[in-house]
Amino acid sequence: MEKKPVMMIVDDEEMHRAVLAQFFQAEYELLEATNGRDVMALLAEKRVDVILLDLVMPGMDGFALLAALKRDERLAAIPVIVTTAGSERAAEVRAMEMGAADFITKPYHPAIVCCRVKNVMARMENEWRKLEQAARERQILEMRHHIEVDALTGIYNRETFYEKTVELLQQNSGMRYNLLYFDINCFKIINDLFHVETGNLILKTAGTYFKTITEGIGLAGHMEADHFAVCMPDDMLDIDILLEGIDNAIFSLGIKNNILFYAGIYSVDDVLLPVDQMCDRAHMALNTIKGRYKTRYAYYDEKMRETLLEEQMMLREMEFALSEGQFCVYYQPVYSIKAGRAVSAEALVRWQHPAAGLIPPVRFVPLFERNGFVVRLDRFAWEDVCRMLSSRIRAGLPVVPVSVNVSRLNFYDSDFCDTVVSLLKKYDLDPSLLRLEITESAYTDNPTQLMNVLKKLQSLGLKILMDDFGSGYSSLNMLRNLAVDILKIDMSFVRDLENSQRAPAILRRVVEMAHDLRMGIVVEGVETKAQLDFLSSIGCDKIQGYYFAKPMPQKDFLARIEKEAER
Question: Is the model's pTM score more than 0.70?
Fold first, then answer.
């Protein structure tokens, strides 16, 4: 049964209370009081929905009660209808000014009294509904704000930025827009050098700046980490001024480090293109200037579009290509200058596409690192190498140790070590025949985990090579903390040997350091006799590069080592 609303009738005359009670006893639960003090005592214990109040009472009269109700936030919303004698117009006006909802006059006319109470209750119900609706709307807005806005930067998150950009472009179809994608140079270093709070302060400042410059004309979003996106009209974009503004905003923080934003720009020429793909195009333009200090922005162009189409093709066909055997392993020998023959090799994956021809790894490996497919590709290569070595050994044919590349994503897999060990057992291989090449990025992502995994693998007899040593900012730090067996010196050192006075000196010291640490050395990218002679003179014996051999198919590599074994 539905609970009745509660009415309180306040009058010092019992007869007046009885008359009013007769009018409302069917619709209301009734309470009675004879003065204001009794009312306040009852209200402390009972919930009341409406009060019928006689103004003239002993002790605390109706006016004093109205004032008391108004002072109490909990009670101020209760509608009060005052009862007066017909001649008390001044009292009625005063009561209404003090917050009374309406008045009824004595003697009471049943129809008029009931009508006035219903009207007041209907108005209050309407007001409550408005308040509830407003509260619901506020709650929805707060929820929407929480869902749509990035908590750290105060601007749209990625998904909301996509949605709002679609709306913006549709609503302004006659206007040309640019979509800009930003990131910060070496933001990881900033987080390493300073506290995370400093990095967060930079991101918050950037969010405030981007929100300010797009207010009323465009949109700003925080994509992830140190990546931001902005959509704004073409005729309002001056990229040089925009970058100068963000530089000034960050500079004002007083952080003693050169923090620079770089931008890729896509001029929106197809409003029907999904916004995430617009961001991909702007991001692609941004990637073309990575590592360039002076060039701060780049526009997406048709050449980048061709690259994007190729990437989409590779992503679409990668699973089929792996199952159909389109991926194959090439081998690039590592030569000993003293021995004059190949003493090891590096396994490199190539994609033999039926239509596009031979696709080099530089075109597909970075893409597969981003989507995680590189882990499966790595393991395909490891097994192919183990299979080849095993078959050669069973046939009594010559073999050399082969190093395989290990993408940093493998170190997030708790089964990584078990996978390597199971391959060695499956093909009955001595661990010395399979070597693992890691890059600096694997170390910088999770050094502790990497060190634990590599120590376990080394304890099983596997050799670890650090690939591209010297190409990153923390190579020496990595070498200090991580015990590797062989350094593969980046080809950039060799390339600069003949044109730089510093490169030979640095390379000489690196070789001395490696010898002191009892590490092996392989120098990559050797192409000329002059380079070879210099490396030999400073104690480098193991060489990999076009001077001796390019990467080659398995059959050509095997034929080469067989021929060299006969000498």
Answer: no
